[in-house]
Amino acid sequence: MNWRSVPFSAWIGIAGLAIAFGCAVFAPFIAPYGESEIVGGVWELPAWSGGTFLLGTDNLGRDLLSRLIYGARTTIFVAAAATLLAFSFGVLLSFTAAVLKGWTDQALSRLNDLMMAIPTLIFALVVLAVLPQQLWILILVMAVLDSTRVFRLGRAVATDIVAMDFVEAARLRGERTSWIIFREILPNALSPLLAEFGLRFAFAILFLSTLSFLGLGIQPPAADWGGMVKDNKDGIIFGVSAALIPGTAIAFLAVCVNLVVDWLLNRTASLKGGRA
Amino acid sequence: MAAVPGSSQNLDGTARLPAGDPLAVPGAPGSLLVSVDPAVPGTAGKRPALGRFAARHPLAAMILQRLGISFLLLIAVSAVLFIGVEALPGDFAQTYLGQSATPQAVENIRRDLGLDQPAATRYFAWLGNALTGDFGTSWASRNSITEQVGRRLGNTLFLAFFAALISVPLAVGLGMISVLYRDRIADRLVNVFSLAAISLPEFFIGYVLIFVFAINFGVVSFPSTVFDGMPFLDRLEAIALPCATLVLVVLAHMLRMTRAAILNVMEAPYIETAELKGLSRARTILRHAAPNALAPIINVVALNLAYLVVGVVVVEVVFVYPGIGQYMVDAVTVRDMPVVQACGLLFAAIYIFLNMAADILAILSNPRLRHPK
């Protein structure tokens, strides 16, 4: 790959992602205060309006910048874990469906159609209303709901590849189904899946933030961007902009991911003459 | 493009049922019996009649089939919602009363709520009642759910209707302008703006609008309260901000996909012909490209309207708007399951209906789809 061919917008995206991931990894070293340490008064003004804290304090007097940095950790970790899991489920099941065909394919595809007939957020609300509020459950629910979209793309891509001669050759050699899935199809389906991974990751960030905002995502006192908006939303009425800062962070991260994905998609499209 | 949650279009697969069955489903139970009965000994007796009907009215047959599939899907979704809630761990009576409840009290509550009945009995009772418009009573408030939903559904649809009224023409218009000035400043601006708008969470857009227009300028009121008997104009003013938020949320998706749909058609040879015979670019797009891109555009619009109905949930919470989405979120926080199930079913029904409408409109607008090969 030629570094000069990477467009400027993609560099912005990559730089933004680097900053966010840096914050997530080195949170305890960068953050000036602790995650839930109360350091000042309620909703103190940010530094540009003459306050002592760079971004001001939140509804309990915690430093907003520190929580933002720790929040990057939670938000990115949960979104990435959910997306990875969704891809593992989705890719495995969709490739299996495409390779085995017949009733396996029918059963999995119809089940997928059924799941997709219920809006994601509504499904999540119903399920999370019943399940205990724990982190791994949240990740699992997000992953299962997201895997339906991965399944759809994965099956479309894999059906095309299964029809190729080299897959038939592998079959005639007597390779097992798992070999065909992982050694024949997966390497050839990687580039469309990679772009999709970015899109799903951006979507997972937004979805997690929405759930946290509705009070069903990450539970306090852990910092997470959607939850921070929820904590500080009452300040809006008094003209306190604290809720807008984590909101900006979410938007910033999602824009960066989308910029990188856009570039990846264009690259794939120019290589293959259209996206599968 | 894949970021549009739930573009569930390939319901076509479900169409591989015997050709007759879906046709019969939307009718009364009686008609179902009549058409299924001869099918049991052998399909030979039934096929010709249905085949004749399908041959004579291909469009009506297709539409009836879609209706039937959607209805089956809705029943399946209701089962998923019910079983999902049922199969998950946790005893509602226990949660409802708290940890210190005596076993006797838990038992009483269970009997009161009908939880001691077998799951299948409860499911069919619930489904039967729901189909006749009775969603039971809320556990938290002991009020009739149907009454609450009835009042709030009107508010939600009012909001969604005006958001659609503004966003659809705007998206299609801007999409055409974007194609007209392709790769020029207007197109670039539209592109950058829509990419940013896709990446913004609904609640963020909502709060920025509140912060700017309600707090800093003070031109609109917050929260967006509406009540029965409110004058129409006051109501419109109250929904101005939530409506603007929804428009921004769906506009970008619709715009980008409209642009893509028209650009796709612009590759066709007849567009080149139109250009070569000296038509202006605006006229080419308006008269030659847009009508041929109608099917995908209608599809995009319907899918985004389906998304709008879901986006309403968050927007209602942000603006404290008394709609069905807020009702559902409130019910989720107190684990009021009958309300959650009722709202879930309603949202799913609207969603399935709009997807079906997208399907049917696409078929109507493109004659080639009427005779699948």
Automatic annotation (TrEMBL), chain A:
It comes from the Bacteria. This is ABC transporter permease. It comes from Antarcticirhabdus aurantiaca.
From TrEMBL, chain B:
This is ABC transporter permease.
